[in-house]
Design a protein that fits this description.
Its EC number is 1.2.1.16, 1.2.1.20, 1.2.1.79. Belongs to the aldehyde dehydrogenase family. This protein is of the alpha/beta class. It folds into two domains: 5-258 and 460-479, Aldehyde Dehydrogenase, Chain A, domain 1; 262-448, 3-Layer(aba) Sandwich (Aldehyde Dehydrogenase, Chain A, domain 2). The chain has helices spanning 5-8, 48-66, 70-86, 88-99, 103-123, 162-174, 187-199, 215-223, 237-249, 272-284, 301-316, 336-351, 402-410, 425-434, 469-472; strands at 14-16, 19-21, 28-32, 39-44, 130-133, 139-147, 151-154, 178-181, 207-209, 230-234, 253-257, 262-266, 294-300, 355-358, 373-376, 393-399, 414-415, 417-421, 439-442, 457-458, 461-462, 475-483. The relative contact order is 0.14. The structure holds succinic acid. Residues 158-159, 162, 234, 257, 290-292, 448, 454 line the site of succinic acid.
Length: 486
């Protein structure tokens, strides 16, 4: 594959105080196309000094930015939404080249990601408060909302556009300035996003971007500065815990969207067509590289065999290949390490008794590809029961009773998403109430929507992104108390 023109046109420097600048060290790093293993671009590799300059710019602009009219901020987001949609083909080509997902999915992500801007452009003008009277009638209270202040945003590689817009959208709407560190595997999509926001009219210094291969130094410089008031992170639970520790030192607000281990439960009474469709969506979206991906598929004994066979038939029909090629449905994993991890998890499951119905191997040749795989009869002690697979592997575990499956589904420290397939309404509410997760898909394999609150419980995170809850994460409550004229 040749490098997409949209990639060659990108400015790959750091973006600080409205200016593109090289890293102070002069260093750059290479971005690799996971389908070809070829170098796509070189990107400025920021360090702690660059990070401090970026946060200084954000802090200096905070007061003026907070004072802008909500409509002005909303209209910047609205323009950025429109520009993203106009440029969907170019941005999708960049995303596919650096991350691997098929072009059709990348375009889908541009629409999904852009929608966060449209949603928060509408939320910007609905920031509200309260007016109350104390119980003794002597004091009047105005409960107002103000931007929390400069924010640290750290995003992952799996949805390189949407995870950025999901944080930048509400921060802009609320009136917060930002320092932003995208994942080093996928910096290019974020650079394209910066260009869109600049063109949409985002003032200098409001958004500052530092790409780096040394996230520890960059993010620590921000967290320890005392100048940032909030951190919003999407990534692993281990890194999230570390950031929470750092946030505690300066008592910063924190939103964490961390790891998942989603149970996907299919009861005997489920509509199997719907359940198979749901499994394909919840498992195969993004080649399985999603925190909400179905990780443990529990199928009740009466349908387990038929369900596994039908999912395997669908998996076999999928076309694996370079995401930029016509008709590709499953692209490569993001890097060799990810491929090795999937291979290790599958080998371990087989060693512990699982049967391969389809897949279980990788195609010959270049690129980090893994064939769509269905494993049946996965044992409870297989490593993938406790580890996010983050690959195109459906692990089916049989169960007998409702109580048994609820216990198994909840036997994890994680609680992001869960899925439930049944036609029994009473069971649907009973099981959904009992599932220890932040989001339940009932007879659907898709829970994500910019207008709905996304987030987890237990060790899957804190706070919500999207929905009317999303902007609250970027706002502080301020009380104004005054005597009530008597
Ligand atoms: C994620 O993998 O955390 C994001 C998935 C989504 O937004 O649907």
């Amino acid at each position: 594959m040749t490098t997409p023109t949209a990639v060659t046109k990108l400015n790959t420097d750091l973006f600080i105080d409205g200016t593109w600048v090289p890293a102070q060290s002069g260093k750059t790093f290479e971005v690799i196309n996971p389908a070809t293993e070829e170098v796509l671009a070189s990107v400025a590799d920021g360090g702690a000094e660059d990070a401090r300059a970026a946060l200084d710019a954000a802090a200096a602009k905070q007061q003026a930015w907070a004072a802008t009219a909500p409509r002005e901020r909303g209209e910047i987001l609205r323009r950025a939404y429109e520009l993203l949609i106009e440029r969907a083909d170019d941005i999708a080509a960049i995303m596919t080249a650096e991350m691997g997902k098929p072009l059709a999915e990348a375009k889908g992500e541009v629409v999904y990601g852009a929608e966060f801007f449209r949603w928060f452009s509408e939320e910007a003008v609905r920031i509200s408060g309260d007016q109350t009277l104390s119980p003794d009638g002597k004091t009047r209270f105005l409960v107002q909302r103000q931007p929390v202040g400069p924010c640290v945003l750290v995003t992952p590689w799996n949805f390189p556009l949407a995870m950025g817009t999901r944080k930048i959208g509400p921060a802009v709407a609320a009136g917060c300035t930002m320092v932003f560190k995208p994942a080093d595997l996928t910096p290019l999509t974020s650079l394209a996003l910066v260009e869109v926001l600049v063109e949409a009219g985002l003032p200098e210094g409001v958004l500052n971007v530092v790409n780096t291969t040394d996230p520890g130094s960059v993010v620590t410089a921000w967290m320890e500065s005392g100048k940032a008031r909030k951190v919003s992170f999407t990534g692993s639970t281990a890194v999230g815990k570390h950031l929470l520790g750092q946030a505690a030192q300066n008592v910063m607000r924190a939103s964490m969207e961390l790891g998942g281990n989603a149970p996907f439960i299919v009861f005997d009474d489920a509509d199997l067509d719907v359940a198979v469709e749901g499994a394909m969506a919840a498992k195969m979206r993004n080649m399985g590289e999603a925190c909400v991906a179905a990780n443990r598929i529990y199928a009740q004994a009466g349908i387990a065999e038929e369900f596994s066979r039908r999912v395997a038939e669908r998996m076999q029909q999928l076309k694996v290949g370079d995401g930029s090629a016509e008709g590709t449905q499953v692209g490569p994993l993001v890097e060799r390490k990810a491929l090795d991890k999937v291979e290790t998890l599958v080998t371990d499951a087989i060693d512990k008794g699982a049967k391969v119905i389809t897949g279980g191997d990788r195609p010959e040749g270049k690129g980090f590809f893994y064939n769509p795989t269905v494993l049946s009869g996965v044992s409870k002690d297989a490593e993938l029961m406790e580890t996010e697979i983050f690959g195109p592997v459906a692990a089916v575990i049989p169960f007998e009773t409702e109580d048994e499956v609820i216990t198994m589904a909840n036997a994890t420290p994680y609680g992001l998403a869960g899925y439930l397939f049944t036609t029994d309404v009473a069971r649907a509410f009973r099981v959904s109430d009992a599932m220890e997760v932040g989001m339940v898909g009932l007879n659907t394999g898709m829970v994500s929507n910019p207008s709905a609150p996304f987030g987890g419980i237990k060790q899957s995170g804190l706070g919500r992104e999207g929905g009317k809850e999303g902007i609250e994460e970027f706002l502080e409550v301020k009380l104004l108390a005054m005597p009530q004229p008597g």
